[in-house]
Backbone:
């Protein structure tokens, strides 16, 4: 099988590897669509990535024993390799599992973890059925398209009467717009990138503000009748955006952090105690919400058509990385079996 790897000094290679084998509850999935995510940072920074990609949509092609899927099933492949037996896994919050397993050890192989590849191995219970009428591309939005912010939207319990501030309008933040619009909420976006600001407006954001504008908070308050956003979703991981979420949310409001970052100075007295903010950390979504996210995807075809701006064959991975670095794209998809 063919797999993309990123060498140091910004070199991309397509290598040949052995197809992994199914064992126990691990099955082999032929990858039809891999939504591209933060792996392009390795290319940008000249660091090595020998197992790029973490989510996909594809077809089950081999099983080792009867289970929750069969050969021929069309499925979305969820991230990580959780244990499946701890309290977090059993509750659907598998993403927070602290007892991850080694698929290579279980399947006696050294391939099959990357999704920028033609095949992957995954536990059968982490495979979500794709409705017959849904394409692999759209189904893959349950991963890092809509999926990255879907858990946050549920944690915040966003309603149609509310205004949501979304900071950082990369593919994750753009997907958050669709999740909020699907619930009838009004959206304020924050982004530096003019290309993505325009796309955010096309997706339904009512206004997009530049975080470098000294009057940004004043504009947020004016748009919300003076109080600030009801709820906020932070998708960038940048400190300026994070602080805008905290400052731009009304008293007794809620903020969900989705974008990865390190430390952040929060004023405990002013921001948390006196303002009464509730702050959530959100990493993916609970498996019990599978039907809900698939319904959201099914009902958002037109918006997803705008969100997904580019598609590449595996051999074009380097071009895809360069495009992502430019910022002139929405969600980018990789098709491992397409010809360039």
Residues:
């Amino acid at each position: 099988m063919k797999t993309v790897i990123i060498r140091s000094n910004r070199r991309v290679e397509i290598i040949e590897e052995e197809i992994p084998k199914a064992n126990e509850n691990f099955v082999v999935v032929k990858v039809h669509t891999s939504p591209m995510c933060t792996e392009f940072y390795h290319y940008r920074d000249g660091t090595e990535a020998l197992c790029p990609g973490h989510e996909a949509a594809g077809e089950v092609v081999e099983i080792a024993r009867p289970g929750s899927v069969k050969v021929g099933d069309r499925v979305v492949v969820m991230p990580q390799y959780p244990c499946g037996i701890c309290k977090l896994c059993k509750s659907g919050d598998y993403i927070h599992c602290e007892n991850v397993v080694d698929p290579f050890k279980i399947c006696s192989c050294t391939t099959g973890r990357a999704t920028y590849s033609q095949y992957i191995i995954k536990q059968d219970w982490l495979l979500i059925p794709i409705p017959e009428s849904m394409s692999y591309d759209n189904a893959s939005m349950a991963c890092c398209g809509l999926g990255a912010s879907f858990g946050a939207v549920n944690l915040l319990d966003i309603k149609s009467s509310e205004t949501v501030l979304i900071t950082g309008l990369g593919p994750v933040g753009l997907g958050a717009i669709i999740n909020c619009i699907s619930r009838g909420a009004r959206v304020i976006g924050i982004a530096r990138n003019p290309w993505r600001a325009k796309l955010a407006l096309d997706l339904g954001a009512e206004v997009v503000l530049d975080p470098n504008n000294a009057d940004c908070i004043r504009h947020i308050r004016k748009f919300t009748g003076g109080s600030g956003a009801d709820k906020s979703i932070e998708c960038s991981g940048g400190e300026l955006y994070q602080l805008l979420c905290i400052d731009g949310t009304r008293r007794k409001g809620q903020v969900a952090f989705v974008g990865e970052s390190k430390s952040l100075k929060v004023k405990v007295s002013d921001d948390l105690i006196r303002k009464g903010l509730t702050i959530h950390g959100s990493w993916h979504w609970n498996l019990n919400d599978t039907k809900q996210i698939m319904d959201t995807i099914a009902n958002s075809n037109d918006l997803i058509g705008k969100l997904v701006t580019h598609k590449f064959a595996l051999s074009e991975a380097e071009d895809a990385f360069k495009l992502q670095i430019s910022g002139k794209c929405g969600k980018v998809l990789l098709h491992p079996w397409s010809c360039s």
The first helix runs from residue 40 to 45. DSSP finds 13 helices and 15 strands in the chain.
